[in-house]
Predict the 3D structure of the following.
Amino acid sequence: MRLNRGVVQPWWRDAVVYEIYVRSFADSDGDGVGDLEGVRSHLDHLVDLGVDALWLTPFYPSPMHDHGYDVADYVDIEPVFGDLAAFDRLLSDAHERDLRVIVDLVPNHTSNEHPWFQAALAGGPERQQYVFRPGRDGGPPNNWTSVFGGPAWTLDKDSGEYYLHLFDATQPDLEWRSPAVHEKFRTILRTWLDRGVDGFRIDVAHALYKHPDLADEPAAPVGSMMAADRPAVWDQPEVVGVYEDWRRITDSYTGDRMMVGEVFLLDARKAARYVGPSRLQQAFNFSVAKADWGAQALREVVDRGLALFDPPTWVLSNHDLPRHTTRFGGGETGRRRAVAATALLLALPGSTYLYQGEELGLEDGDVPAEARQDPIALRSGLPGRDGCRTPMPWVAQDVGHGFTTGRPWLPFGADASERAVDVQRRDETAMLATYRQLLVARRTLRPHLGNAVTWLDPAPDVLALRREGGLVCVLNTSERPVEVPCSGDVLVATQAGACVGDGSLTVPPVSTVWLREDPTHA
Ligand code: GLC
């Protein structure tokens, strides 16, 4: 619990959460793959940065066809990542530093190597816990496609039936109409809550149930979950019932345990329905991650996020999306825009999710076709998501960039040396320093800030808002400096050259300034 303007509220309502893609964060044993001990040894990076929590992508035993999102045992640790003792050490060291830990839960599908699926193939009662159907006209039961490309059904040769997999063929979908599946996940949830985790990120939270008719659908494009509404596939009416059930479980523990749903739906109103006092505590609001650069576009998504989500959540990058530096044009322009947009979101009420490496201004790596590992690339021939998953560069002058002493599982991005952590730590003007300043200022102001946001509309191409409690945030999206009427002290500026004088604030091109308003004007 935490006090905001005299009101006690759970930590997650305004937390800044840092996503760790475990494979690519830090490798402690030289096998080229990041691991839990690597995360533990870099916790001070997160403390220095000033985040409140970290989200770990799946670390469970897995054949790694989807890099851990194909889980073969929900309550143990993949040896490549460590073991349960390593997890406990990480959790306890994080807690000692006042960092909360969110783990990834993957309830839509298991790995085909999970003992449940193996038993299902062998014809045991577990078969009811997956979606097996007879074929149609010598082919799959319907025309559904996998998000990763190709059909969503694979033939089980022994039985002559097909099983459903909305992702890779190695990720069979669970049948959530089976009560046994519910019971199993309740136990999994309790296992991790008992171990002390602070929350869960729920993978493809809008999936789980499929329409019982399994009727044909209009063809869906591959490679993006948000590319199409799939009314028979996503967002069935029954699914929120699962989260109502899980909410009773998280609420039965002390310490404000939470869940955040990856609800990848085109319509943000539908995603917002997953959140509430008896449902998920949060759902990712992906509309910002899809917004174009520009004052109008950003204002629209901010308004929508504020109006629809309680609490609002803000996401610009993650392990499935192009990094926002790249999406906003790459190079110096992309970086200026990226940190300016991040600064806008960090000024808002709600919870912001950062993705590892964005504090360095990393761009997507250019992973050559022969080095690609993402099942999207392998199944569909599209470039896939490897570009945003290239390893963290900790040290500039080192072949393994302090990430590994071995051969990294994916090549580093071209900007690894230039943007490495050790270089930026020595540079007060680096992106890393700006992120730190933003997070320190946010933490300092937090007890004084309310949730009301007022737009100030000072000039075209400029977004300016006043947050209740005296924070003014001005984003200049244009290529020229602008002057806006304001008074107070500059707290953080994402580019050099911001200054206040004579009741006006100068905001450098493509930058954001945070100002602590003069209390007499607040
Ligand atoms: C989620 C994960 C993604 C994974 C997919 C299937 O979208 O973020 O990385 O491939 O689910 O589990």
Observations:
- Residues 8 and 67 are 39 Å apart (CA to CA).
- Residues 66, 69, 106, 167, 203-204, 262, 319-320 surround alpha-D-glucopyranose (CB under 6 Å).
- The mean pLDDT is 95.
